[in-house]
Each structure stands twice: as structure tokens, then as C-alpha cells.
Amino acid sequence: MSPSVCLQEMIRVIRGARTQGEERGVIQRECAAIRAQFRQADSGGRSHNLAKLLYVHMLGYPAHFGQMECVRLIASSKYSEKRIGYLGAMMLLDEKQDASLLITNSIKNDLSHSSQHVQSLALCTLACMGSAEMCRDLAPEIERLLKASNSYIKKKAALCAVHIVRKIPELGEMFTPSAHSLLSEKNHGVLHGAVILITELCERNPDNLKQFRKSVPELVQIMKNLVTSGYSPEHNVAGISDPFLQVRILRLLRILGRNNDAASDAMNDLLAQVATNTDSSKTAGSAVLYETVLTIMDIRSESGLRVLAVNILGRFLLNNDRNIRYISMTSLQKIVQTDHTAVQRHRGTIVDCLKDQDASVKRRALELSLALVSAANIRSMMKELLLFLSTCPPELRSHAASGIFNAAERYAPSQRWHIDTILHVLVTAGGDVRDETVPNLIQLITAASELHCYTVHKLYRALISDIVQQSLVQVACWCIGEYGDLLLKGECEEITPMQVTEDDVLDALETVLQSHMSTPTSRGFALTAIMKLSTRITNNVDRIRSVVSIYGSCIDVELQQRAVEYNALFKKYDHMRYFTMSYCTVILEFGCRSRLSLVLGGRGLKAEHVSIIFDCKDNVYLYWFLLQSVQLQMKAPSGDLIPAQGCGTVTQTVLLSYTNKANLKMRVRLSYSSQGTACQDMVQIDSFPSPAWS
Questions:
Q1: Mean pLDDT of the chain
Q2: 64, 44 in Cβ contact below 8 A?
Q3: Global model pTM greater than 0.85
Q4: Residue among 54, 65, 69 nearest 11 (CA)
Q5: Which helix (H) or strand (E) segment is 681 a member of?
Q6: Under a CB-based contact definition with an 8 Å cutoff, are residues 177 and 148 in contact?
Q7: Which helix (H) or strand (E) holds 611?
Q8: How far apart are CA 405 and CA 422, in angstroms?
Q9: Eight-state DSSP code of residue 658
Q10: Dihedral sign (CA 469, 473, 476, 478)
């Protein structure tokens, strides 16, 4: 390829390359030719070569060697060369390049050029890549151009001022008077630039809010003119008069009306007019309506106006465009707590969005549906959510299950409904629930004593039909081990009776132990359940002993340890087996805690001079205490000196683990020295309050 080919020919050759290596070769040869021509004194083809280099840059190849050529072309007196030079500066230079400082003086000169097109090139370049130093030096020139008579220049100067404010916020004060005066312009481009500039000034410096709130009536009037104006081919987009300017004005009104009653009142009527008269059948109209809704929700608007905004979002939910449905639900999610009743009116439409094919829309619909659950609609909403759970994508299943659990715990109309709902989730998505689900459900079942028979029957049926969902298997094994005697009786009013034998129950639990789908945790639940049944059945104790003995040599260390301990109960401590495997009445979350306070006073102390007080917290209980196997842990005392004459106390926390159903008793031995004599005494405390142990 000849080095002097035109841009179009170079593009044709590059596109015709069959491999990446061939394309790379063409680029390297052309770049070498361009670099050689840059070194020549003749500047006749400089703009032509820089144009080709910019195309090479667009393809992702290095073009940094053209930066100085950009500087030279910008300084040229020819418009054709300036245009390519400024374009190259915007593409090849940034504020980190030292070469960018070399064009500062050229830009300053061109900002005062007689041609508006040259001024426009300089303004666009400064707004695109101007560094903080350049902006500081050229800010007075931009402020001067904001007052120019040419609307074309004022529009670009306003956007350039926005860039300067973003780079150096403290220079915003320079543009504040000019920005306010630009609102009186009729040109839409100037108005658009002015609104963006005022928005930037208010966001960068909150002190400007007070000053620009005085402009709210002007902004309202501009917006009204746009809404009520007739057809204008220059600004019309799908039947909406300049939707870009409308959106910008609405965003500025949202900033000015936030947390301000006067400004909000001034724009309420306008917002109602826009919300009522804007056609939402086209994307342009939907964009204006969406910004209107956001403004209504963000300012101190009237309640009726907020309801109107929610209804607009409700209509968006019926739109065929998934993007519009998505942003609608995102907005409803933000306001559901403050405008719950208004959002509830669209509950049916929101629930229908759970069936959407788009995963992101489904996720938003799920989050919004969970937020809409209340005590009044818990049954109907839970029906829809459970249906969604059975068909939802795997990535949403965990979130859906967690949300259903939270809603059921908060609004459950009855304990049976609560248990049934959680069991339904475990059957449907037991592998996607959180780890705390199993102990939480066990605690719920334990507390519902009147439902023990119903629950154990239902879980047994679920276990024999499917052992894939491990969370369900674990709860079922625990419940069967705890209430297996109720299952064997076969009498349950709440559910169809089912005749179950001891062998059937043991077969189900052994299936869990032997299944390759069972996790080590599930096998531990099953083995413990079998061991518990040894105290609840009479004819198959030998079978249970045999099963436990087999797993004493299991490869799983945890399961092996359990089996060894249970074997020891059978062989060495059979008299303790019933108490150890007795019924669990209440679940202990953090163990049992009692506070032991020793109140000692006076000199020459004897046993009768010592009183021991146990202060049991109201929300902590002690269960399952077995006298022969009390576990006791004593924390450090609060001090090592007890003042005389009852002037102070020393406290020490004792953690107990007691597994007997009998009354709690404790013996405490005290050793102390009185007047040089060693004393020792033992007292028995058997007057613990019944809530602490029963």
C-alpha cells in the first residue's frame, strides 16, 4: 500500500485484512509512513495524515506520537487544520499529558476568534479534556462568552462552564449571575445548557440552593410552555415537545424542592399537569413521566399528587418494554414504606410480574412482593410467593425462601399455618435455605405442643416420599426422634390417620443413614433420632442397639463419636439412658446462666453468717438437669475483697448444664479465713425459682 493513499483507501485495505496479523502489518506500515511525513517541514498533508492516525487510534493501536502534531494544527490559521487538530486533541490528549498545557494559549486566542465555528472548536475541546490548570486560566473567558449575543456560542459556553465547575467547584460563584440570566433565553439549546449549569452549581454547593429557589417560578413557566406548546418540528420527539429539556428541568425542580415547602408548593400544580397530560405510549413520554414521578416523591408534595405518581408507576408495570417495568418496580420499592397503601392497590400487577421472562424483572418483582406482605394479605400473598418459589430460577430461590420465612414469622395467622408454610418451603427448596432454618423450625415446633402429633405425622410422610432436601430431612429426623411415640399411636385429629409400625419408623431413619444423598449432618440427626426412639418404643431396642454399634466404626468422625457415646449409654450407663434421651421441652440457644452473688459481712464469720443468692434472668431458663452429669463453668469474680458490715458484694457468674427433670439443687462449699482461723462450710441451695428449671 502506498504511504500517500487517502483515508478511505486505508480503511478499505484494513477492513480487507483476513487475519489480525495482516491487519497489524498494514497498520504498522502506515504508521511508519505517517511518522516520516510528520518529520517533514511541508505541512500540506498534515491534517490528512492526522485523520488517518485518529482512525488507527479508534482501532486500539498506539497513536501517541501524533500528540505534538495536534498542537501544531491547532495553532494553524486554517479552519480545516484547526478542526482536525482539535479533534485529535480531544482523542489523544487528556489532562495528564504535558502536551495539553501547550494548547492553552491557542484555546484562549480561539475563544476570541471572529468565527463562531472556531470559538466552538475551542469550547468543545476545553469542555472535553480541560485540566484544572487550564480551567482556572480560561474561566474568565468562558464567563465572558456566557454573555455573548450569539446563542450558538452561549450554549457551548454553558456546557464548558459545567466542566469547569466540576473540576474547580469554588469557581462556581463566577458563573452564578450568568446562569440565572440564561433562563430568560428562548433558544432551547441555551436553556438546556443553563439548566444543566444551575443543577451542577446547586449540587456542588448547597449554599446556591437558596438563591436559585427564587428561579422556581421561571422554571415552572418554561416547563408549562413546553407542555402546552403546539407541534414544533424542530423540538418534537414522538409527540413530546423537547423531552430532553423537560427531563432536565424536572431534575432541577427536584433538587430545588427537596425539603422546602415554598418551592414544593410552587411546582405542585405543574407536576400534576405534566403527570396528567403527558402521553406514555412512547418512550419519550415515559421518560418525562418517570422524572415527574421521581420529582413528586422527592419533594414535599401533596398526598393526592403522590397517589397520582404511584398510579403512573402502576401503569408502567403494564408496559411492554421490560426496561420501563424494571424502573417502575425499582421506584415502587423505594416508596413502599412511605406510601404503602397506594402501592398496595397495584399488588395484583406486581405479582403478575413474577411470571416475567426477564430475570432482573423477576428479582425486582420478588423484592416488591415481599415488601407488600402484611397481616391482612398474608394468606393470598404467601400462596403466590410459594407458587413462584416452585418455578423461580435457581439464583432467586434462596432469596425467595428467606423472604418467605421472614414474612411468615412476622405475620403468621396461626402456628399451624406457620409450620405448614415453612415445611412447604423445605419440600420445594430445602437445599437453598439458610443454615439457621433448621434450628429455628425445631424451636417453633417445640413451642407448639398442641401440634406435635400433626407435625410428626406430616414430616414422616414427607421423609418417606423424598430425602433429597436435606434441611427437611434433618427436621423430620429430629421430630420423629422426639415425638415418635405420637407417630406410632396413629391418632391425629388434624391429619388423615396413618398406621405406622416401629419397623417402619426405623426403616425410614436407616434409609437416611444409608443414602448417598444424606450429608454428615443429616446422618447425625438420623442416628440421634434412632437413639431417642430407644426410650419411646419397646419391641425394637435390640435393633437400635445393633444399628448404633455398626456406626461405631464409621469413617465419618462426627458420626463415629456419636455412635461410640450411644454405645456407652447402652453398655455402661443404661440406667441413665432414659433421662439422657428424654423429651426436649424447650430449646436452649446459649446455654443456661445464673448469677451467683455472695453477700458476706462482719467479722468472725460462721456458716450461718453467709447467704448465697441466685438471681435468674427472666428470659433465661434452665432445662434437662441431670444430677449425675452437671457441667459447671465459673467465670472470674467481680473482685477478690468482700467489704465488711455488708457494705458491698462480690458477684460471680456460673454457667450450668443440667439434664434432669427433678428440682434443681446445688451444693456450694465455702472456704475462708476468719481472725486467722481457716473455716469451711457447705450449704445446699434447693429454692431455685421454678421458671429457671421447669
A1: 84
A2: no
A3: no
A4: 54
A5: strand 677-685
A6: no
A7: strand 611-615
A8: 7
A9: -
A10: negative
Q: How crowded is residue 643: how many other Cβ atoms within 10 Å of its Cβ?
A: 12
Residue that the C-alpha cell 474568565 belongs to: 140
Q: What is the DSSP string of 198-259?
A: HHHHHHH-TTHHHHHGGGHHHHHHHHHHHHH----TTTEETTEE-HHHHHHHHHHHHHHHTT
- Which triple of cell numbers denotes residue 507? 426403616
Would you call 137 exposed, middle or buried from its count of C-beta atoms within 10 A (0-12, 13-18, 19+)?
middle
Give the model's confidence band at 263: pLDDT under 50 very low, under 70 low, under 90 confident, else very high: very high
How far, in Å, are 228, 252, 345, 346, 528 from residue 298 at the CA level? 25, 12, 21, 21, 58
* Cα separation, 569 vs 553, whole angstroms: 16
Q: Which three cell numbers stand for residue 570?
A: 447402652
User: Residues 343-377: pLDDT tens digits?
Assistant: 999 999 999 999 988 899 999 999 999 999 999 99
DSSP bridge pairs for 625: none
| Residues 509 and 530: beta-carbon distance below 8 Å | yes
Contact predicate 110/82, CB 8 Å: yes
CB 88 within 8 A of CB 66: yes
- Segment (H or E) for 11: helix 7-15
- Cell digits of residue 453: 402429633
Cα separation, 334 vs 304, in Å, equals 18
The residue assigned the cell 397520582 is 308
Q: Tell me which residue has cell 420445594.
A: 428
d(CA 188, CA 241): 11
Angle, vertex CA 316, rays to CA 311 and CA 317, nearest 5? 95
Distance, in Å, from the CA atom of 102 to the CA atom of 120, rounded to the nearest integer, reads 19
Task: Please state, in angstroms and rounded to a whole number, the distance separating the CA atoms of residues 682 and 659.
Answer: 23
Give the residue from 538, 527, 536 showing the smallest Cα distance to 567.
Answer: 527
What is the full DSSP assignment across 621-640? ------GGG-EEEEPPPS-S
In angstroms, what CA-CA distances link 252 with 179, 195, 200, 202, 287? 13, 7, 9, 9, 15
pLDDT (mean) for 581-603: 42
Residue with cell 464548558: 160
SS3 671: strand
610 Cβ neighbours under 8 A, 6+ residues apart: 598, 600, 670, 681, 683
The distance from CA 214 to its chain's CA centroid, rounded to whole angstroms, is: 39
CA separation for the pair 212, 543 (Å, rounded): 86
Q: What is the DSSP letter of 414?
A: S
When pLDDT is cut at 50, 70 and 90, the band that residue 272 belongs to is very high
Contacts of residue 456, defined as CB under 8 A and 6 or more positions apart, other chains included, come to 479, 480, 482, 483, 484, 486, 487
- CA-nearest of 614, 618, 686, 611 to 655 is 614
Name the 3-class secondary structure at 693: coil
Using CB atoms within 10 A of its CB, is residue 565 exposed (0-12), middle (13-18) or buried (19+)? middle
- Going by their DSSP bridges, the two strands 650-657 and 240-241 should be labelled as unpaired
Side chain identity at 199, as an amino acid letter? T
Q: What is the rounded CA–CA span in Å between residue 352 and residue 342?
A: 18
List residues bridging with 594 in a β-sheet.
654
- Looking at 297-311, 352-366, 654-668, which range is the least confident one? 654-668
Among 414, 420, 419, 350, CA closest to 388: 350
Q: Where are the alpha helices (DSSP H) in 494-635?
A: 502-514, 520-533, 541-550, 557-571, 577-580
- DSSP-H helix ranges across 414-554: 415-429, 437-447, 452-465, 470-489, 502-514, 520-533, 541-550
C-alpha cell at 320: 411492554
For position 617, what pLDDT does the model report?
47
